[in-house]
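Backbone geometry:
***
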Amino acid sequence: MSKGSESNRLAKECIVTALVELMKIREYDSITITDIAKKAGVSRMAYYRNYTSKDDILNKYIEEVGENIHKMIAESNSSAVPYDYFHALFEQLGKYSDLAIVAYRARLGELILAALIKNMFITFPPPNNSTAERYHRFFLAGAFYNVFIEWLKGGLHEDPETMAKICAEMATNGCPTPFDEVTGK
C-alpha cells in the first residue's frame, strides 16, 4: 500500500470514528463538518477529499461494513445453514453496535436497512428473477432489521447464539402470526 493511500485510509478511519463519537454526545443535525474534522484531527480538505457530507460518511461506512460481513459469510459458507448465517450476522454486527445505535438514533436506520437488503440479494439472489422471491428477500431483510434494532436497543442482552437460534427458527419454520390468533389456527 502506498504512503498516500495508507494516509487516506487512516484519515477515513479517523473521520468515521470522530463522527460516531460526536453522535454519542450530540444530536446528529447539530454536528458540523468542522466539528468532525477537528475531532478527527484532519483538515477540511482531507475531509472533502473523502466525503461530501455527514450522510456520505455513514452511508459509505455502513455499506463497507455490510459488504465485509457478507464477504466473510460467503467465504466461510455460513449462508448454507440458516443458524450459521444468522449467528455470523449477529456476531459480526454486534462488533459495530456503536455505529448502528448512533445511526438509528439519528433516524438513519434506513442506511442499515439498505445495506442489509443489498447484501441479502447478493448472498441469496432470487431464482429466475421471481417476483415472489424478490419480495421475500425484502420481507426477510426488513424482519431481520427490526430484530437487530430491538437487540441493539436491549443492549445486546442475548448472545449471538440465542439470536441466531430465534431467527433461524422463524426463517425456516415460520412463526405464529397475529393472523393465526384471529383465525384460531
About this structure: The chain has a mean pLDDT of 87. The CA atoms of residues 177 and 185 lie 9 Å apart. The two ends are 61 Å apart (CA to CA).
